[in-house]
Amino acid sequence: MKNLKKVLVVVLALVFTLTFCTACGGSDSSDGDKTIKVAATPAPHAEILNEISDALAEDGWTLEVIEFEDYVQPNEAVVNGECDANYFQHQPYLDQYNEENGTDIATAAAIHYEPLGVYKGTKDSFEALEQGDKIAVPNDVTNEARALQLLADNGVITLKEGVGLEATPLDIVENKLGLEFKELEAATLPSALPECALAVINGNYAIGGGLTADDAIKFEAADSEAATTFANIIACAAGNENSDKVQALVKALQTDAVKAFIEEKYQGSVQVSF
Known about the structure:
This protein is an alpha/beta fold.
């Protein structure tokens, strides 16, 4: 009888140990979970992610891309554990989000950069601009500054020296043609082209609006301050940057095959950052 009791105690101890380990094993590959869930906005992020699905599958991973149309839910999905990572934002936006929400989301890797482009409206070149023409620009502080810098770099206007990525229309010191700057929500800029001489548009909204590199006359330079500052990143909960899932995701993205895909599909509207 005593021996039977000892056996029961050992069995129960083993059951408890196995149950405890299963419950606390986390969501990484150590417990057999081979699905990587990534929150992303549709273009170009989800498109790029879908391109690596087969490569991940060859290494035993299943990629699940969950698309969002806004810039809040992808971070919430990482914070609440719904997703292992997200892919939609640049570092300044993430820093601001963490500060405003008390969250601890970290950067795992930089993948691509979406340069602002000057797109053709009623005019097809800088030289064709005339007195009083309208140029549409994003109305958010960061992207408007980038737009003004891009125009200044191409001689359309002159800005105060040293204003950099904090430039506003008030920093324009020379505007020979008396150009009017129409400040619009970034997402609406493609639809404003028929009413403006030119428009400076973010890469993701240009792609979403059906625009191609042929519709643009100039992009931000790859070595510009904006290019290094606003690279789009893979982000995850702090502490998970080196997890198997996140590292597998980054490894699959930072390849020559993905670089070739981006160059061929987006023709300059999206540029690699690795």
